[in-house]
Amino acid sequence: MGSVVSSPVGELAVATGVEQLVGQRKVKTSQNLEANWEAIGVMTRAFNGTPETAPEGTTDWILGPTLREQWDHPGRRAVIEWLMKVEWSWCLVSGGFALGARKPDGTLGAVVLVSPYQTGIPGDITDALEFVRALRPIGMPPSKKVGKAYKRMRARGFAAKDAIGEVKKRHCNCPHAHVRVMAVDPDAQGLGLCGKVMRVVNMWADDLRLALWLETYGTRNVAIYERFGYKTMEHFALKYKDDPVHEDAFGMMRLPVKEV
């Protein structure tokens, strides 16, 4: 069972149509994961993609050529769901919060996860301990569902984590919050739900004078986040041995806005 974790965030002031999913009080990670399957489902579908909506690029690169565009492959879905549970759990152990916005039919359509780091980027040991604590209630990845592809998939995952970590070290020594995940359900795209939750995150960060950091993929996503005040700090690539290079990774930061 997951350990009890506490969040310093408390109740956030949220706009109409936005709800705080976690971050108000102490929770047990394993129970909180079970209570938020709807949110994890949104994240999984968004990162998986469909023939009409692009997958999350870095995750798609980690999955590799065997599972690329295999939208309904049970192994692809299982691995992405596991990754989303890790992100949710990591958000909890880091004292973060999650927000959601609902579609007109009342189901959840968008989710954002945010981890605050008031003293700047965590050191390597702190980061590793957070990772271990996040994994504890979830268990190992579903490697058997992807067979021989898992070994190289795992290696790409660690290569991506290391590369992103180095980029963060160059830009995140200030107090900041990490926007871990911004996910919109494929059937909710175009409804303005991303904007609803991102504006709440911006207001929260401005109140605390915190910079916001995120990683994203592709110039289309860069343009979306620029609308919310983010600027590209670094355009970088992800590489692993002779695999195709993932060229279009971006680290972006939004500085807090002072009240006029």
From TrEMBL:
It comes from the Eukaryota. Residues 112-258 form the N-acetyltransferase domain. One of its GO terms (molecular function) is acyltransferase activity, transferring groups other than amino-acyl groups. InterPro entries: Acyl_CoA_acyltransferase, GNAT_dom, Trichothecene_AcTrans. PROSITE patterns: GNAT. This is N-acetyltransferase domain-containing protein. It comes from Effrenium voratum. The lineage of its organism: Eukaryota, Sar, Alveolata, Dinophyceae, Suessiales.
